[in-house]
Each structure stands twice: as structure tokens, then as C-alpha cells.
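[Discussion] Sanity-checking designs against the backbone

I'm trying to build intuition for which residues belong where. Below is a C-alpha cell string of 181 positions. I'd appreciate it if someone posts a full sequence so I can compare it with mine line by line.
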């Protein structure tokens, strides 16, 4: 009977997530992960014959952490501010989630209507008393603005200034509220 692996599949996924979180997605190789976990590459290669499968599972782990973080906000403004703050606090994870060509070729409208944003759109719809398609139209410019801020911050192209960001988001949202859908 083969020896039971001492490093479990879940430990490897969590290790991949933590490695990406600390060092960035380019650091995720079998050799780097083995060193990070303090094991040989054998359990990694045994559990994951393809590093793409492991990257996908690490992505899902990162996406769940991101969703939990931003959705613990409250209203739409807080969700947007938490999205930006996540990029400031977790730049490697932000870049892994949003800047690794996973969504290549999709339009902003397709991204907004993706299943991952359903919770945010439901919140917008309820908060603004809008039909789902109206909520998506209201949310689209805000999503572009929030993601732009987050991308600048995650890539050290802009200093994180939460008060200035809040002021801008409020002004844009107020302008959108005056628009008829």
C-alpha cells in the first residue's frame, strides 16, 4: 500500500494562496511552494500533476477571501472603499485576481454581469431601488472608477488616500443618482 502523503491537498492549496499573498503569483512554482511548505516537490506533483489546476484552486481561495473582505462592508460606498483598501493591503492578491489575464477579452458590461458580482448588484438594486438592469447601468461607471483606483494603488502608481477617494466616490455616486435610468 502506498504511503499516505504527509502534506495534504488542502495544505498545498493554502500554501499556494499564502505564497502568492506574500510573494506574488509569479513565485508560484512547485519548487518555491515546496520550500515555502518545508517539503519536497513530490507531494505537490503527486496531488497536482498540473500547476494550472493548483493555480486555479489558489485563485478560488483568493477570490473567496476577497469577496468576504469587500462584502463585509455595508452599503455600496463601503463595498467600493473596501475593494480599494484590499488592493492597498493585499497588492499581490489583487494583482493575482485582476491582472493575470483571467478576464481577458471580456467587456466591462460582461464583467459586471458575471456571477461573481451578483451580490454587489443585488445590493445596488436594493439600495438604489433600481431594477437589475438599471442597477448594472448605475454600477458600471462606479466599478470602473473603483477598479481604477485599486489598480493604481496595487501597482504603486498612486498613494492610498482614503478620504480623497471617499470624496470622489460620493461625488460620482451623487451625480449618477441624478441621472435617470
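Best answer:
Here's mine. Compare freely.
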Amino acid at each position: 500500500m502506498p504511503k499516505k502523503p504527509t502534506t495534504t491537498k488542502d495544505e498545498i492549496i493554502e500554501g499556494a494562496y499564502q505564497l502568492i499573498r506574500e510573494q506574488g503569483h509569479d513565485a508560484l512554482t512547485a519548487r518555491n511552494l515546496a520550500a515555502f511548505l518545508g517539503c519536497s516537490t513530490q507531494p505537490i506533483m503527486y496531488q497536482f500533476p498540473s500547476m494550472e489546476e493548483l493555480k486555479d484552486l489558489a485563485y478560488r481561495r483568493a477570490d473567496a477571501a476577497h469577496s468576504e473582505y469587500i462584502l463585509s462592508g455595508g452599503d455600496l460606498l463601503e463595498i467600493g472603499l473596501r475593494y480599494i483598501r484590499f488592493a492597498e493591503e493585499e497588492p499581490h492578491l489583487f494583482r493575482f485576481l485582476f491582472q493575470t489575464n483571467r478576464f481577458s477579452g471580456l467587456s466591462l458590461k460582461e464583467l459586471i454581469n458575471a456571477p461573481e458580482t451578483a451580490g454587489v448588484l443585488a445590493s445596488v438594486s436594493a439600495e438604489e431601488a433600481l431594477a437589475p438592469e438599471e442597477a448594472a447601468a448605475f454600477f458600471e461607471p462606479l466599478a470602473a472608477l473603483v477598479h481604477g483606483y485599486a489598480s493604481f494603488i496595487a501597482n504603486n502608481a498612486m498613494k492610498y488616500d482614503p478620504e480623497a477617494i471617499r470624496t470622489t466616490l460620493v461625488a460620482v455616486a451623487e451625480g449618477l443618482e441624478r441621472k435617470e435610468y
